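Exercise 7. Given the components listed, write out the predicted structure of the assembled complex. Treat all entries as one system.
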Amino acid sequence: MDQPASFVALPSQDQNRGSTLRTPDSLFRLLVESVRDYAIFVLAPDGRVATWNAGAERIKGFSAGEIIGKHFSIFYPPEEIAAGKCSFALATATRDGRFQEEGWRVRQDGSRFWASVTITMLRQDGALVGFAKVTRDLTERKYAEEQARRFRLLVESVKDYAIFILLPDGRVSTWNVGAQRIKGYEADEIIGKHFSVFYPPEDVEAGKCDFELDIATREGRFEEEGWRVRKDGSRFWANVTITALRDSRAVLVGFAKVTRDLTARREAEELRRTLAVQSAAYAEKARTQEFQERFLAILGHDLRNPLASIDMGTGLLRQRIADPTAQRILRRMSSSSVRMTRMINQILDLTRTRLSTGLEVDRQAADLREAMATVVDELRAAHPTRTIELRCPPLPGTWDLDRFEQVFSNLIGNAVVHGDPDAPVAIDAVVDSATVRIGVHNTGAPIPAHLQATLFDPFRRGERESRTLKTAGLGLGLYISREVVNAHGGQLSVESDAKHGTTFRMLLPLNWKPAENDREA
Amino acid sequence: MRHTVLVVEDEEDLREMMRDALELNGYAVATAQDGGEALAELARIEHTCLVILDLLMPGMNGWDFFATMRQRPELASVPVVVHSSAASRAPVGVNRVLQKPLELNRLLAVVHEYCEK
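Answer.
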């Protein structure tokens, strides 16, 4: 310790008992003795303690009476004594005038403290008279440094977070493993660069970096989630926290920036959202399907049972009642019941074509000519004044004959009803190795051009507006006919003008097989 | 010998209408409203010439009834005509399939094939 340049004479504490001013020596002794933050004492040349002060007592625990005369090795841990540290310290001080170090020392109670120690050789008239030893307890600082070191190690080794420090101007000044992993830069590539390199260009242009530092400076902290850019240009969804760092005088010294890559979490959230939407859609679809199935069941089953009962009842009464008026009424009831049945069947067919089930066709080995002949016979019986010409070779194949009876009944029935009553209705079929071509022809007023375009649509206005007793229907006949033909892999079309009359043309492949999934779809 | 037609139909109006239609035309008729009742009737009736079978019924449905019938040697040869709105799904092995609704004359024609008055 440097000797003070001068002393101010101070009144003695004993002045009440006899007023004497202290000398500089006595003041200096008083100073040393009363210093509490430093242990300051003198060792004899052989290392024994010669003086003691308040600081030494506070730091090391011994009172002056307990320690004076003891060798100073008592302050050292056994391993250091064994290593010859005490002799080494005194020898160094003797040789160099001074020995200085930091190291562990032992208190009276055995506990250790981290000490800064200075041993200064004391000479008088060239001869060694002892050593001044000044010791300071730096345990707290030592612990703080140790904690800081551990914390730095911890931060540097964290992989899941990018943790680094920005200078007040936004340049990167530290870098950790997590930052390297998340952002892709090595420490030496990024330190010194401005942190705007982590932001998408549009954010940089919008002034986001300055904005974030500004908020952190004013409010102490800024946090957000947003897109950031890796070294390779790819983007990731980041949770970012920027904390202002201030020194003990509240001067801004930089920012701590902690970034987490939440891309996986965001993707998981998006996947969860998508799945939720999909599962709601599936549930809706299931509800719709259940509704459709219920609707089809009502249409197909529940409505037909009472109709069957009515139909059978009218038949039974017609069988048993001879009165002509009653017979006429019962015929009308019977005919209404037949029409009702036809309409139910048509709506059922329409519904099936519009739903996932599709129109059912049951293809069996059969002669298509039979379906035509059956229908022609029935129509000839119902319209004895009309001429219906059928020119058709046998047409063996796999057909749903019931469905084709429905088709021919519709097409030939229309021709009879709408055609010129004085001209024949002609059905011509030709067959080659792969295809059957069938035409149903009638002369008379053509189908108006504006109706031709929508002729095969369900619930056509044309048919409904021109309803008569015989044609009264839902406007589904041609629609279902085309569906039946399509279900056999064929095509149904119409040509109609004033000169040639009206011809419905059907093209059917002979050896067509539906694709496996056609029925399922 | 006068044999019995068994009508299996869950809808009462239709079931009783068919009973009337057949009885008025000279047939002996028994009825059941589901497959379970029909099996009991078959055990009771001395000789069944025909079963007219609906498919969609609560309790034992037509498919299960038909399968049970065909497993029992004493019933395996009794003719079965399906009369249903689900005609296209009739079980394999039935004698005939008729789509509902059925006209009286067709019903009588079918029964005439299998049964004596």
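Discussion: Strands of chain B lie at 4-8, 28-32, 48-53, 80-84, 96-99. Chain B touches chain A at residues 11, 13-14, 17-18, 20-21, 24-25, 56, 85-86, 88, 100-105, 107 (CB under 8 Å).
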